[in-house]
Amino acid sequence: MANPPHGGVLKDLIERDLPLHDKLLKEAQGLFSVVLNERQLCDLELIITGGFSPLEGFMSEADYNSVVVNSRLASGVLWTIPIYLDVDQSVVGAGKVTVGARVALRDPRDDAILAILTVSDIYQPDRKREAELVYGADDVAHPSVHYLHNVAKSHFVGGSLQAIDRPLHYDYVENRNTPAEVRALFRKLNWTRVVAFQTRNPMHRAHRELTVRAARSRRCNILIHPVVGLTKPGDIDHYTRVRVYKAILPKYPQGMAQLSLLPLAMRMGGPREAVWHAIIRKNYGCTHFIVGRDHAGPGKNSQGKDFYGPYDAQYLVEKFKSELDIEVVPFMMVAYIPESDEYVPENELEPGTKTLNISGTELRKRLKTGAPLPEWFTYPEVATILRSSHPQRSKQGFTVFLTGLYASGKEAVAQALQVSLNQQGQRPTTLLLGETIRSELSQELGFTKHERDINVQRIGFVASELTKCGGAVIAAPIAPYESARKNVKELVGKYGGFFLIHVATPLEECIARDRVGQYEKAKKGLIKGFTGIDDPYEDPVNPDLKVDISKTPVSQIVHEIILLLEKEGYIGER
Fold it and tell me: Taking the model in full, what pTM does it have?
């Protein structure tokens, strides 16, 4: 028999409100709408399907404060993570969202109406308190604290929901199950004891061993229940991960394990999140839940130390075990023993036992460089999937971003570099010159700081898309502001290499090289906001290469860039 839901009743709002579907949809079409962001969309889906039972809406101010301070709803029911809808001051100030109002909530992807919120509370939270009490520190190095201070809008809105439709998904639909559907699956399979395994990473041999050991020790079947909503920035995309999970499923004995996907927006909240995850799996009908080392940890804080201790999550879950009504299975990391060709929990190792391990950092390095993934670490099928999604650097795209003053020679370097890369023929090369982008993509923009940043952002977007497809991009705008260049680096860096080249030709030399006379016009006031004359140029803080065309010929500069690309493995074969 499946585990009873948290609070005793599965709050499946989709099923509850199905008889009112047409009436609610018609009403919603005439209401003020709030378009959800990705995190809010994940939260809404789990509220209306019962994954967040006993919640029936976004938290009131009383529930929010109680959860932040006491890890409980105002009713006293255990709940550790605040779930709120944040909206902008403008919609509150304009009277669009008021207490008692009914507001339609829309999917940001297709504008579909998903639910109606009846507003009970509008409040401005103590963000510092939430950061310190829920996430352990008011440190924006934590993803959820960053969200609180830099993404979440000014007002939080609480209220009950009436469900109209679930968000529509087009990927892995057969594995996207609601709590009610998972419970029905357990009944069909006659599963009465089920241990859930939470993951946001690809699974390898160690994970298979860990889950089987958990099942064996508790006489359970296994629900592999990975997060496919929002995870930690930099994580491997869920498309790749789900292909891995599907490949690893046959490695279990027939009938032992099933795969279902969880549309959760993780908070990376460590101990509190572990309790939250246990509650969610309880709502899905699981009787047991694996909590491993550094569960839902975000990594290092701004001082370079771990936000949480490696087993803090297990300690907090143990504290609340009498209220959770789901047995938590604490597990140590497992290590591979080459002599016996087996994985063993670290706490069972004999002193001096030789072990092998590949950390997440080492795995990412091997994927980038093309280094082998040994069979003791992962299955060949998994290695093939990871290699397909993360080719070695010689097959990845990259962007060379040249920045410098007008007439600094960056365009000449860019054009010569394009010829050199085309000669090598490893990948298609695209040239994005500043003036070309201005005429083709940014004709309407002027030269204020804001407009310059928009122009550079557009260049970054184009470069990132081409880089993602494995191409080589050479961009050569002036890009005078450090913050805009940093944003481009972050955008492109998600998909491949990014190399910042500062063409640091002195202003006097740039003026001498200016055959068109733009600098002279700027000096006379005929051109306003000209970089280097009456508009600033911020030197890059840490460029990959700094060159001066007045001292170094173009051919040598190109050669130095080629050497840089080769050193990092993007060109040539090793």
Answer: 0.86
